[in-house]
Specification:
Strands 1-2-3-4-5-6-7-8 form an 8-stranded parallel β-barrel, surrounded by 9 helices. The longest helix has 23 residues, at 259-281. It has helices at 6-16, 28-41, 51-56, 62-73, 89-92, 112-128, 160-170, 194-203, 218-227, 236-252, 259-281, and strands at 20-24, 45-50, 79-86, 102-105, 132-137, 174-177, 208-210, 229-234. It is built from 11 helices and 8 strands. Helix 6 links the parallel strand 4 and strand 5. Helices cover 48% and strands 15% of the residues.
Length: 282
């Protein structure tokens, strides 16, 4: 199947009042598991490569990007490629040549005016290249090994009026909002502010994105989609599934040395996780 654009998938999801699942990939096993899980669910999916994943791959984007593109071309469901949490302008400019149709430009760590200026410049460049662009306002937190941000901290959550101005002035196509989730959570205990999410959805005319979804219970995810979330980002849940399955396999097979054995078990666990999460969002 031909690779589709993230914008296409988001537009369809918004029209149907549902959400597209977007999974962060690190290894080839992640790529294969996400596609296999989406095929089992019969659903389109977004493969995301984060700047942190690029750093892990020795700063080289193309090896993982090309593997993802090749796998996507043979998928039985529509697959889009998205470059996630980009802070480096150099990496941003590699996106079109690496096969990505969209990028999340992350300047949310900066004060509002600096975030806006950097995002506006990124959006202008991205649109000139035909890229769909997502940004973040508020602080989801939990990135780069830092402790997750207290979602109740003043200034952490996205303000609807500020978000409306930010979207209008930056020209972005979608906005990641801070409504109570946090990156890198290993427990599903995040409580989303559904009232805030509804106000953001009513205020903004661009799709809303939920980051840190691995820490969000199923019921809150369902409610978030009903309240207007159109793209749901998942990363840590796959790593939990993979690591747990590999640990269990190696505990039971201490003599194992063939990496295909335990990587295969990890891939299967991630596939099940993908299918389950897509099912929650459907």
């Amino acid at each position: 199947m031909t690779i589709v654009t993230t914008g296409e998938l988001i537009t369809r999801a918004a029209a149907a009042h549902t959400a597209v699942a977007a999974f962060n990939i690190i290894t080839l096993e992640h790529v294969e598991a996400v596609i296999a899980g989406a095929e089992k669910a019969g659903s389109p999916v977004v493969l995301q490569v984060s700047e942190n994943a690029v750093k892990f791959r020795h700063g080289r984007l193309l090896p993982l990007a090309r593997a993802a593109a090749s796998a996507a071309e043979h998928a039985a469901v529509p697959v889009a490629l998205h470059l996630d949490h980009v802070q480096s302008d150099d990496l941003l400019r590699q996106a079109p040549g690496a096969g990505f149709s969209s990028v999340m430009y992350d300047a949310a760590r900066l004060p509002y005016a600096e975030n806006l200026a950097a995002t506006r410049a990124a959006a202008d460049w991205a649109h000139a290249q035909g890229l769909w662009i997502e940004a973040e306002l508020g602080q989801v937190g939990g990135k780069d090994g830092r402790a997750p941000l207290d979602a109740h901290e003043p200034g952490a959550r996205t303000d609807p009026a500020e978000a409306r101005a930010f979207v209008a002035d930056s020209g972005v196509d979608a906005l990641a909002v801070a409504v109570g989730s946090s990156h890198a959570m290993t427990t599903r205990t995040a409580a989303l502010d559904q009232d805030l999410l509804k106000r953001l959805s009513a205020t903004l005319d661009v799709p809303l994105v939920l980051h840190g979804s691995s820490g969000v219970p199923d019921g809150h995810l369902v409610a978030a989609v009903a309240a207007g979330i159109t793209k749901v980002n998942v990363g840590t849940a796959l790593n939990i599934a993979m690591t747990g399955a590999i640990r269990e396999f190696l505990d039971g097979h201490p003599e194992a040395v063939d990496s295909r054995k335990y990587l295969g078990v990890g891939r299967e666990a991630m596939t099940r996780a993908v299918t389950r999460i897509i099912g929650v969002l459907s």
